[in-house]
């Protein structure tokens, strides 16, 4: 694209000089126009409404025989369809284990061992983040004993300094995912031999606090682990032993453990985890944020845990008193902290409040890389269901969709009547969960025409609060953005909808609440400034109790950023390829006599060549760095740790690229001053624009930051 030589006076050269500047100018226009077109394209045609969620027929008796038949049909066939090797399920009702079932294989036998079927009592599974509610139960034992205070600054319990510039953090914040910490990815999941102590896991590289505590739900494995470490410190016992003593022992969970590696007798019973049933198993995963996700258990042990939290165990077997259990099962924060986000789902103490109109519920889901688990309890019906899977399935959403189908199907079939009302308990709307007086005022699908101004206020692009913000992990915010588009009937289309890959349509059911048309999922909104301002723009949307979508400024939207980065990289690549190509072509033409021999370079010419060389080295460093960051992002999303030294090397290359803006500007000025022609000047201007755009990108997404602990 750039050239160090003027064209000759040959006729062909004159035609090239007339054509190439036009192409270069057209490239400049395209480089500026495409990102804007991509951005504008996100708000063009109104998306077609998706099929609404479907409820299953209700009114069935909750009996062991009926549940067994239903599970055989709903789960047994699904394993074959999805390629998930095995599953284990337990159901409790009326104070007892109603049924426990095993499906498929704990070991497929593809690696030489005999195939081993799943046994709900004997086979153990990694339950992922379901560990959090067990850990919180142990923490609440210490609260109940007066050894911990839910609302005291946790710093008083720690033996390292926790930097909290946005405000003091309490156990209540940690157990409700509102401590304000950014997401942590590095070091979360490893392989055998990578175990670290709980203290090291929470103190080696604490995440930055980016939100004021109590205000912005942001799911945090670090927060849950810090709560576990507080309990370890105060009790004086290793965390795994504390849980054994305070929870597993009293409840009778004889096949459960937080130990890593597992004791030999339990390890022999552990199911292998698989991407799908056609691939080899993965090595046993090590979760260094142990209180957040390291637990191993069986379906029947988890049935005992559900009975404990439903208040169905004798007092000497219950880990907590009835009052403490009740405290764990109700929303732990209100509008004083959350503002209008409190009109949606809110966290209980470690439990998700999964209530829907007429059906109070609480529970938790859990995922490792190859194990997927869900648990729901329905206190008014004195019932609960637990399901765990040892594979991902052939499609990325298979495990999530299967769990959702089972949990929602169980509630529909056994806990609602044929009209969809609760089949037990009071079923009062005021007890249905997310600010039910507001949300339950409109039944699902009943809205015919919403407020267009409200829909317009919600519209925009959002990023997840569960993101790194202060380090190169900020790049990941570009991969999971959510768009909200207003529809002509006053509803909004959300793409992708929470916990999905498709679009969901939501209708307004309260001043700050939206519910999925035909379903129960609720979104709550918050505006900055005056809530009474009709023109106020929504700044945050909460969903699922512990997640918040934050409005992205236009310069942070992937539809603008990614095309700009791509086009800038193309400009630099063309420049780098043109550099040797032009030099080789010029040398050949000189040999053929089409160009005069190069004159000896004077001092000014030598300085110009050095400037141009520095610009091109900076271009090369920028391209190499961006390729490296892309590879880092892929590894981070796969929980593969990248050595800090590799990240520092990429940062050095990125800095070289940022500094290259200076010689690139000088080279452009030299081309203008020396009247090198429109082609050369246009090419160098494009290079400057590309380097400036990529320098902004590097700074905005923390590719150049003191911390590389993502």
Pick out its properties:
single chain; 710 residues; alpha+beta; Beta-lactamase; Lipocalin; 20 helices; 19 strands; 40% helix; 13% strand
Describe this structure in words.
It is built from 20 helices and 19 strands. The radius of gyration is 30 Å and the shape is globular. It has helices at residues 11-41, 64-82, 131-144, 171-175, 198-203, 221-235, 239-251, 264-267, 290-293, 299-309, 322-328, 335-338, 398-415, 436-439, 452-458, 558-591, 603-637, 644-659, 661-673, 678-700, and strands at residues 86-93, 96-107, 116-117, 125-126, 189-190, 286-287, 296-297, 352-353, 362-367, 372-378, 383-389, 460-464, 482-486, 492-495, 504-510, 513-516, 522-527, 538-543, 547-551. The model is unreliable at 1-44, 425-433 and 435-448 (pLDDT under 50). Strand 15 and strand 16 form a beta hairpin. The relative contact order is 0.13. The strands form four sheets. Strands 12-13-14-15-16-17-18-19 form an eight-stranded antiparallel beta barrel. A seven-stranded antiparallel β-sheet has the order 3-2-1-11-10-9-8, with helices on both faces. A two-stranded antiparallel sheet has the order 4-7. It is of the alpha+beta class and 710 residues long. Helix 3 (131-144) packs across helix 7 (239-251) and helix 16 (558-591) packs antiparallel against helix 20. It has three domains: 11-40 and 557-700; 64-110 and 119-386, DD-peptidase/beta-lactamase superfamily (Beta-lactamase, 3-Layer(aba) Sandwich); 433-553, Lipocalin.
């Amino acid at each position: 694209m750039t050239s160090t030589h003027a064209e000759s006076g040959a006729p062909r050269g004159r035609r090239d000089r007339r054509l190439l500047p036009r192409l270069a100018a057209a490239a400049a226009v395209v480089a500026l126009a495409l990102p804007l077109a991509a951005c504008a394209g996100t708000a063009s045609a109104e998306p077609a409404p998706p099929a609404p969620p479907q409820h299953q027929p209700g009114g069935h008796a909750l009996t062991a025989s009926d549940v067994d038949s239903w599970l055989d049909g709903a789960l047994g066939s699904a394993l074959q369809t999805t390629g998930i090797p095995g599953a284990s399920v337990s159901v409790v009702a009326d104070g007892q284990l109603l049924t426990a079932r095993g499906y498929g294989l704990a070991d497929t036998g593809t690696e030489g061992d005999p195939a081993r079927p799943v046994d709900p009592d004997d086979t153990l599974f990694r339950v992922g983040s379901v560990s959090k509610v067990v850990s919180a139960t142990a923490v609440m034992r210490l609260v109940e004993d007066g050894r911990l205070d839910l609302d005291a600054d946790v710093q008083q319990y720690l033996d390292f300094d926790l930097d909290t510039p946005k405000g003091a953090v309490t156990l209540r914040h940690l157990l409700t995912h509102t401590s304000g910490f950014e997401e942590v990815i590095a070091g979360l999941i490893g392989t055998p031999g990578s175990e670290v102590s709980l203290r090291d896991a929470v103190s080696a590289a604490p995440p930055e606090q980016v939100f004021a505590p109590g205000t912005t739900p942001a799911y945090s494995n670090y927060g849950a682990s810090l709560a576990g470490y507080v309990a370890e410190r105060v009790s004086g016992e290793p965390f795994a032993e504390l849980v054994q003593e305070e929870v597993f022992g009293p409840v009778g969970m004889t096949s459960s453990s937080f130990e890593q590696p597992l004791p030999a007798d339990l390890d022999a019973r552990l199911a292998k985890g698989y991407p799908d049933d056609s691939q080899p198993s993965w090595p046993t995963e090590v979760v260094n944020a142990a209180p957040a996700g390291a637990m191993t258990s069986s379906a029947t042990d988890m049935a005992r845990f559900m009975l404990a939290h439903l208040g169905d165990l004798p007092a000497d077997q219950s880990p907590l008193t009835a009052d403490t259990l009740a405290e764990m099962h109700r929303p732990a924060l209100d509008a004083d902290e959350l503002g209008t986000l409190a009109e949606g789902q809110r966290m209980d103490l470690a439990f998700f409040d999964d209530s829907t109109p007429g059906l109070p519920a609480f529970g938790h889901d859990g995922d490792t890389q190859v194990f997927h688990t869900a648990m729901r309890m329905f206190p008014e019906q004195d019932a609960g269901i637990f399901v765990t899977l040892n594979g991902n399935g052939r499609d990325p959403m298979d495990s999530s969709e299967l769990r959702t189908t089972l949990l929602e199907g169980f509630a529909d079939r056994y806990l609602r009547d044929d009209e969809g009302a609760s089949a037990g308990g009071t079923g009062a709307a005021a007890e249905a969960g997310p600010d039910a007086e507001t949300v339950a005022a409109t039944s699902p699908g009943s809205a015919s025409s919403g407020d267009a101004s409200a829909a317009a206020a919600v519209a925009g692009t959002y990023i997840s609060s569960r993101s790194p913000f202060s380090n190169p992990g900020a790049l990941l915010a570009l991969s999971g953005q959510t768009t909200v588009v207003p529809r002509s009937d006053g509803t909004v289309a959300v793409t992708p909808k929470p916990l999905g890959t498709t679009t969901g349509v939501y209708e307004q059911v309260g001043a700050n609440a939206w519910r999925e048309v035909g379903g129960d999922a609720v979104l709550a909104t918050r505006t900055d400034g005056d809530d009474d301002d009709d023109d106020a723009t929504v700044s945050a949307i909460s969903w699922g109790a512990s997640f918040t979508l934050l409005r992205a400024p236009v310069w942070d939207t992937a539809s603008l950023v990614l095309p700009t980065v791509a086009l800038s990289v193309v400009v630099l690549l063309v420049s780098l390829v043109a550099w040797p190509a032009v030099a080789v072509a010029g040398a050949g033409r000189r040999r053929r006599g089409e160009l005069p021999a190069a004159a000896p370079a004077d001092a000014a010419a030598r300085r110009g060549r050095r400037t141009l060389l520095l610009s091109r080295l900076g271009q090369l460093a920028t391209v190499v760095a961006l390729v490296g960051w892309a590879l880092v992002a892929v590894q981070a999303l796969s929980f593969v740790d990248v050595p800090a030294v590799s990240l520092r090397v990429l940062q050095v290359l990125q800095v070289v690229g940022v500094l290259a803006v200076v010689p690139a500007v000088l080279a452009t000025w030299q081309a203008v001053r020396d009247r090198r022609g429109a082609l050369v000047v246009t090419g160098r201007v494009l290079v400057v624009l590309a380097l400036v755009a990529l320098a902004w990108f590097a700074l905005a997404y923390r590719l150049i930051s003191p911390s590389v602990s993502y």
